[in-house]
């Protein structure tokens, strides 16, 4: 399959030239949404023991709240992206962040674990569509050769959340209670709405945009294979991350005051991996995804060996976090293969990402329930990462056969 020239596609059509400061303001506004989403997604994992206790359930059961959020992303991304295609993208982004603010505020007010599951599912609905549409807006304001780096800037908000936001809200959770985490996210979502309304380009929706036009992406095998790399390959990282706090407490033997620092190290790894992954994606294209998956498999295999010692644990957690660089590579790949269905394909990447977010903790939790021990989360992660690499090989061979 010949890659689509996104510079001429209507969804990524070149915008009028903008000054560097104007582009920076657009990217900052979009990244703020990534920051708020990153906190609710990753901090929910880091405070899992806290809300498990607060809502009266055990930790494997509390992990279902993580999966409920991920399920919301999987369901919401294609539906909201397809039916929002007729709206100007800036307005769609504002609406999505409004939904996100309401759902996280309700999560903070959960009366029991059942209502928590419902509100986490609702919180996930706008997640994928926001990232997908924001990635397209970011790519539209820069030259074609810098689009992966522009997309990575949106994801940079998420990685900054893992470096700064997650440790801070983890401390807040330990001091004032886990409900503050979701309340803070609600406030950040409102801030994002304001910034996007002020600075995002007012490009109108394409006159031919429609749900059916977006659904054409589902006919494309390369779109599905790229999504498969994300849905399976990213699951390895989430299998470990969801139970990292518990592993640190039970195996490494550290106290609650150390946890924020380890999560910050993971965030530094993700931040660095996002930068390097964007550079590699612009330079090597889809091949860069294979390199990231191999890196992740090796790092995950070292995790059980490192878990007895805090220093070695922090080094390995840093390396596992760097595997987050896969995201912007796959997002750009979808821009190349999705044709005229850019919005849906971009949003579906985050459905796939959160399929991994559901799959990893679910399988790791099953391994724990079966009595295999905390180290089993890493072996589940290795299996998922290698599964993602196998799908990458399939996609690469299929794409080569389809070329004229």
UniProtKB/TrEMBL annotation:
Entry keyword annotation includes Transmembrane helix: yes
Major localisation: membrane
Cellular localisation: Cell membrane
Membrane topology annotation: Multi-pass membrane protein
Membrane-crossing residue ranges in chain numbering: 22-45, 65-83, 90-109, 129-146, 153-172, 178-201, 222-246, 258-277, 284-304, 310-330, 351-372, 378-397
Family matches, as PROSITE patterns: MFS (PS50850)
Keywords: Cell membrane, Membrane, Transmembrane, Transmembrane helix
Domain Major facilitator superfamily (MFS) profile: 26-400
Domain of life the protein comes from: Bacteria
A Pfam family: MFS_1
PANTHER family for this protein: CHLORAMPHENICOL EFFLUX PUMP RV0191, PURINE EFFLUX PUMP PBUE
Protein name per the record: MFS transporter
Originating species: Brevundimonas staleyi
């Amino acid at each position: 399959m010949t890659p689509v020239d996104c510079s001429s596609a209507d969804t990524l059509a070149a915008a009028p030239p903008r000054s560097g400061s104007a582009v920076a303001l657009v990217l900052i506004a979009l990244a703020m949404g990534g920051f708020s989403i990153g906190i609710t997604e990753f901090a929910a994992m880091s405070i899992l023991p806290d809300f498990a206790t607060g809502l009266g359930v055990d930790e494997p059961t509390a992990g279902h709240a993580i999966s409920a959020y991920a399920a919301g992303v999987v369901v919401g991304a294609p539906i909201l992206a397809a039916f929002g295609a007729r709206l100007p993208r800036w307005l769609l982004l504002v609406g999505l962040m409004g939904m996100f603010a309401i759902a996280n505020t309700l999560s903070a007010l959960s009366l029991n674990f059942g209502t928590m599951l419902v509100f986490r599912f609702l919180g996930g609905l706008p997640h994928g569509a926001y990232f997908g549409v924001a990635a397209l807006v970011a790519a539209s304001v820069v030259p074609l050769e810098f689009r992966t780096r522009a997309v990575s800037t949106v994801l940079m908000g998420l990685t900054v959340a893992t470096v700064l936001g997650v440790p801070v809200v983890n401390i807040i959770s330990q001091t004032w209670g886990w409900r503050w985490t979701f309340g803070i996210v609600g406030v950040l979502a409102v801030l994002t709405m304001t910034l996007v309304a002020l600075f995002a380009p007012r490009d109108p929706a394409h006159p031919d945009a429609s749900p059916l036009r977006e659904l054409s992406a589902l006919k494309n095998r390369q779109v599905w294979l790229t999504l498969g790399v994300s849905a399976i390959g990213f699951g390895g990282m989430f299998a470990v991350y969801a139970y990292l706090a518990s592993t640190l407490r039970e195996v490494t033997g550290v106290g609650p005051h150390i946890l924020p620092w380890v999560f910050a190290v993971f965030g530094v790894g993700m931040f660095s991996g996002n930068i390097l992954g964007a550079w590699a994606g612009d330079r090597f294209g889809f091949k860069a995804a294979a390199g990231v998956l191999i890196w992740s498999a090796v790092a995950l295999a070292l995790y059980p060996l490192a878990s007895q010692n805090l220093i070695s644990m922090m080094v390995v957690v840093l390396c596992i976090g760097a595997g987050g660089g896969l995201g912007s590579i796959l997002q750009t790949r979808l821009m190349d293969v999705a044709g005229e269905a850019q919005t849906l394909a971009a949003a579906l990447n985050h459905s796939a990402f959160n399929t991994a977010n559901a799959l990893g903790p679910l399988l790791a939790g099953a391994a724990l329930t079966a009595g295999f021990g905390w180290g089993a989360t890493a072996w589940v992660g290795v299996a998922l990462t290698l599964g993602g690499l196998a799908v990458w090989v399939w996609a690469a061979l299929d794409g080569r056969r389809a070329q004229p």
